[in-house]
C-alpha cells in the first residue's frame, strides 16, 4: 500500500506520519494531480489517495482502496466518477475553530474593540474618555443558525454560554439544550426575527443560493450575517446589494465566490467589490485554519489508513462498500 498526498495534503506529511503505523510509503503529488491524470499510472487499486479535490473533467477517477478528503466538504470531489470499490471518507475537527471565529465576529460587532483600540492609539486621552459611547451586548440577542450539524452545534454551545437565544433551521437535526431547531420551511420567519444569522450548512444543490434577495429582504436592518461555510450558499449579487444599500447592518465573510485554482488566479474573491464595502469584515477563508486543526485532522486520516490495512471498519465513511462502515 502507498499513500499519495496531493497538493495541500503533501504539506502535512509529518502530521500524518506521526500517527501512521509502520509500513505505508508516503508519496507527494503536485496540486495539478487533482485535476489531470498524468500521475494516475503510479496509483494502484490498493493504494490511498489523500486530496481535498479530485476530478478528471468528466472522466473516471483513479480506482483506489481509499480516497480520503482531509476536510469535511465534498464539493471538490467528483463522487459520481469514482470506482464503486473505492471508499471515500472525510474528516471534521474544524467545528472548534469555526465556532470560536464565529463568536469572535459576534463579539466584535457588539463591542467594537477594534474601533475602540484605534481611537486610543490616535486621539487624545481626554477626548476619547469624555466621548465614550455605549456598546452592545450579546446577552439576550437572537442568533439563527442555518444548519445544525457539527459546526452549528459547536456554535450554539458557545453562544448559549453568552446568553444568546439560539434557534436553528434544519430538516434533519433535533433540538437540544442549546438551540431550538425548526424545519427549513420556517426560514423566512426565523430570518425576520434574528439579530445574527450564521450560515452553517454544507454547499449542495439544495443549499446553493438558499439565502437570496427574498431572504435578505426579510432580515431586520440591524441584523448581521456571518458566513464561515461556503460563499455560494448566499447569492452574491443579492448580498452585495443588501450590504451596499444598508438593508442589513453588515456581514462577516470568510468564504468566497472565486478562488485560485487550475483555471487561473482571480484578482478578487468576488466578481463584485464585496470585500471593500465598509460594513463587511472580510477574511481569507481562515476561520478554521489553526495550527491544531491539521494535527487533529491528519490523526483521523492516519487512523483510517491503519484501519484499512488491518481490515477494520472506517470512520466517517461517506461513499463506498458498506462493509467498511464503522460499527
Folded structure, characterized:
The protein has 327 residues and is an alpha/beta fold. It has two domains: 2-93 and 291-324, 3-Layer(aba) Sandwich (Rossmann fold); 95-282, Rossmann fold (3-Layer(aba) Sandwich). Helices cover 28% and strands 15% of the residues. It contains nine helices and 13 strands. The strands form two sheets. A seven-stranded parallel β-sheet has the order 8-7-6-9-10-11-12. Strands 2-1-3-4-5-13 form a six-stranded mixed β-sheet, with helices on one face. Strand 1 (2-6), helix 1 and strand 2 (25-29) form a beta-alpha-beta unit. Helix 2 crosses helix 5. The chain is elongated, with a radius of gyration of 22 Å. The model has no long low-confidence stretch (mean pLDDT 94).
Amino acid at each position: 500500500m502507498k499513500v499519495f498526498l496531493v497538493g495541500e495534503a503533501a504539506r502535512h506529511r509529518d502530521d500524518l506520519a506521526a500517527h501512521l503505523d509502520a509500513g505505508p510509503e508516503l508519496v507527494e503529488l503536485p496540486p495539478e494531480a487533482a485535476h489531470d491524470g498524468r500521475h494516475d499510472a503510479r496509483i494502484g487499486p490498493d493504494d490511498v489517495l489523500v486530496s481535498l479535490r479530485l476530478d478528471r473533467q468528466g472522466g473516471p477517477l483513479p480506482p483506489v482502496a481509499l480516497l480520503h478528503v482531509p476536510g469535511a466538504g465534498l464539493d471538490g470531489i467528483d463522487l459520481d466518477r469514482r470506482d464503486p470499490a473505492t471508499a471515500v471518507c472525510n474528516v471534521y475537527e474544524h467545528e472548534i475553530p469555526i465556532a470560536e471565529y464565529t463568536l469572535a465576529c459576534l463579539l466584535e460587532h457588539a463591542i467594537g474593540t477594534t474601533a475602540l483600540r484605534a481611537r486610543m492609539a490616535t486621539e487624545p486621552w481626554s477626548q476619547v474618555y469624555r466621548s465614550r459611547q455605549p456598546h452592545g451586548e450579546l446577552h439576550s440577542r437572537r442568533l439563527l443558525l442555518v444548519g445544525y450539524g457539527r459546526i452549528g452545534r459547536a456554535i450554539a454551545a458557545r453562544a448559549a454560554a453568552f446568553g444568546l437565544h439560539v434557534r436553528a433551521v434544519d430538516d434533519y437535526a433535533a433540538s437540544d439544550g442549546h438551540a431550538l431547531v425548526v424545519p427549513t420551511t420556517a426560514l423566512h420567519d426565523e430570518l425576520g426575527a434574528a439579530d445574527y444569522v450564521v450560515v452553517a450548512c454544507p454547499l449542495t444543490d439544495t443549499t446553493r443560493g438558499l439565502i437570496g434577495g427574498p431572504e435578505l429582504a426579510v432580515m431586520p436592518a440591524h441584523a448581521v450575517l456571518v458566513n464561515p461555510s461556503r460563499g455560494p450558499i448566499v447569492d452574491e449579487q443579492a448580498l452585495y446589494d443588501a450590504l451596499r444599500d444598508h438593508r442589513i447592518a453588515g456581514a462577516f465573510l470568510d468564504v468566497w465566490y472565486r478562488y485560485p485554482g487550475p483555471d487561473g488566479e482571480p484578482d478578487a474573491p468576488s466578481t463584485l467589490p464585496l470585500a471593500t464595502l465598509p460594513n463587511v469584515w472580510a477574511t481569507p477563508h481562515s476561520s478554521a485554519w489553526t495550527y491544531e486543526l491539521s494535527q487533529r485532522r491528519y490523526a483521523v486520516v492516519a487512523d483510517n489508513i491503519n484501519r484499512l490495512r488491518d481490515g477494520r471498519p472506517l470512520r466517517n465513511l461517506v461513499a463506498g462498500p458498506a462493509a467498511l462502515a464503522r460499527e
